[in-house]
Amino acid sequence: MSMRNSTIRAVNRLTGRWAEAAVAPDGRTGTVLTAAGVWPLLALLADGADGPAREELAGALGIPADRASAASRELLTALGRIPDLEAATGLWARADLPLDPDWAARLPEGTRGRLTGDRAADRKLLDDWTAARTGGLIERMPVQLTEHTRLVLASALALRLRWIRPFQEWPGTLHEGPWADQQVLRLHRTTSLLHRVRVAETPAGPVTVFEVVGDGGVDVHLVLGTPDAAAGQVLAGGIAAATRAVPSVDGFDLPWGTPGPGLRIGRGAAYRPEPRLAVETVAFSVEAEHDLLEHAGLFGLETARTRDPSGHFPGISRDPLLIESGSQSAMARFHAKGFEAAAVTAFGAAGAGMRPPPYRVRTIDLRFDRPFGFLAVQRSSRLVLATGWVAEPLAYVQEDEDWDDEDWEDEDWEDED
Fold first, then answer.
1. Mind listing the pLDDT tens digit for each residue in 277-327?
2. Which residue, 131, 139, 189, 186, is CA-closest to 364?
3. Shortest CA distance to 12 belongs to which of 408, 383, 417, 389?
4. How far apart are CA 396 and CA 173, in angstroms?
5. What is the crossing angle of helices 51-61 and 68-80, to 10°?
6. For 82-106, b where at least 16 C-beta lie within 10 A, e where not — what string?
């Protein structure tokens, strides 16, 4: 995946800031978000903005506005090349909105369509596009259509990956912590690759990060902080650790005892001479709706949403425009065999009996048995594709029809060890 390191860092910084702002400090509410779906749209808006709106958008992006259009195209092209990821953009405008031809020519490849002004027809058009681009993971475009809506700019990302090595799954009851006595889907796996677990010192205190390897270049990292740490800060610290923005220590070099949240390191009996990392977590499913204008300053939209007779986007259209809505719908599922995540972001302009063992080896036990964070990261670039917080595990029900096992048939799995 070819992309400027500066663009990757800029997207990841926005991810961290948004995660810290969006996750409640007590961690009692789950969420999921994808700044990689917002950033390129903000860049396209910055390319057509002027005055204070352009300056604010450039500040939120973390790059100069005159580089925004090229960076957006580069990012969206690179996202489209990730094997497990479907990425798309779309623009729909009213027939009576004169788009600037130079701005339109710089747009990345994607859908171009017309808004009719008939809200029911336009809603169906946008929702059909959303469902098609996410494989049905998200069915409705998160945009407010009003009588004043003249332009809709949207992105869709849908990630679906398998673990190189699946977890063992069984229904069970947790006995400690905030999830005690709940019937959940427990997930377990062991590996000799101790570098899969790392501990980093962050502003939120020590954070433990465990990497689950996907089969197509995207991995998922589970993030656990101390029980009293603010959830958003834990997630932001985990993002920094997983993307190597801050240093961390892996399981081979961590000290004995309890050097990080959820961790216990010692020596134990084993039938093989290799060290052992045993991880226990839970299956989860989270969904979220984000009103981006609730954090307008974070996204550089304070000025762009205000009324001005001359408008804020003369590079998009000679007709005055303002941002009347900005939203993202996102979801993520983590289970024994893989991970799914999707996000659709839209701006409307208006107007998860034998012989004794012969060896003594380094053993690490890691448990995610209380609220924790997660993030999906493209392996080679360290670009964060999705991140979120798990407040509640997926409850076990005897016949759960929410999962479609047809696409997850048993097969021979490569052992990552």
1. 999 999 999 999 999 999 999 999 999 999 877 788 999 999 989 999 999
2. 189
3. 383
4. 9
5. 40
6. bebbbbbbbbbbbeebebbeebeeb
Other Cβ atoms closer than 10 A to 228 = 7
Does CATH number 3.30.497.10 belong to domain 14-161+289-350?
Answer: yes
**If one looks up domain 162-283+354-397 in CATH, what number appears?**
2.30.39.10
Structure tokens that stand for 254 in this block: 């961590």
- SS3 string of 397-416? CCCCCCCCHHHHCCCCCCCC
Residue 31 burial by CB count (10 A; 0-12/13-18/19+): exposed, middle or buried?
buried
pLDDT tens for each residue of 350-366: 863 445 677 788 888 99
pLDDT mean over 118-132: 95
Domain map (residue ranges) of the chain: 14-161+289-350, 162-283+354-397
Q: What is the pTM of this model?
A: 0.90
